[in-house]
């Protein structure tokens, strides 16, 4: 970041270590100027304008930032991480990687339902830019509607449709009779319909679904499959976006989410399934969504999402 004595357009060789997990923070323009392409960037999307239930998901990035542990990363002269150590295996996690926290897309709005389509469009452009400067852009939501924008942006940057692997207790397709073709119609409950209709995805596997659907939601969009476990996933070479809705966990494991469903797994089981997905798919984008503000559970929620974020980055980059 520029110091008071540097011109505004100068590039700092050393980012500041104070982002998610204690990762370095940097400005996207500076990253683009200084590096050809980095390994990952992380962006918060404080948005709940797409929820059809109780709001509060706008606080997700704030909660994770506040309660994310600072793991003591350090940087070499080329802004590569000196990784942290797994105490069990001794393996270095994220060592030699270039991973930066770019901050949040906008502050927490007073009324996020104002001009909803504009926020999604800006989120799409942000995702497009992030996918141009990083191998794996990562987004912390926010309600699940933001996935429509982030997947669309990444798909555009890679110039082709993506495959979507989504961990979710719900199959967010919306009624068949309600075609979702623009951001003004978008909600967290129909974003898969939007992505399938607009061609940003060629198919989707939704893993962990346990909420029943009314008959009005069938047949599912072409190429969309609901699965109980990641062990059912087919092998696939297509570039894949990984989306994790925190309600895939049981309410006992993660109560701070907007639409909890009985049943579900714990964090350990989810991490194992994420490891499996990352080992066989070409992951080109990630989001973790639907963390909701709670007077009682926010600290636990923030730490849980932070642990999942670290585990997912570790799996994507093969730091075992």
TrEMBL record:
Cofactor binding note of this UniProt entry: Binds 2 manganese ions per subunit.
GO biological process: putrescine biosynthetic process from arginine, via agmatine
Binding site for Mn(2+): 144, 168, 170, 172, 245, 247
Keyword Acyltransferase found: no
Keyword field: Hydrolase, Manganese, Metal-binding
Alphabetized GO MF terms: agmatinase activity; metal ion binding
Pfam families xref list: Arginase
UniProt keyword Metal-binding, yes or no: yes
Cofactor: Mn(2+)
Family: Belongs to the arginase family. Agmatinase subfamily.
Protein name listed in UniProt: Formiminoglutamase
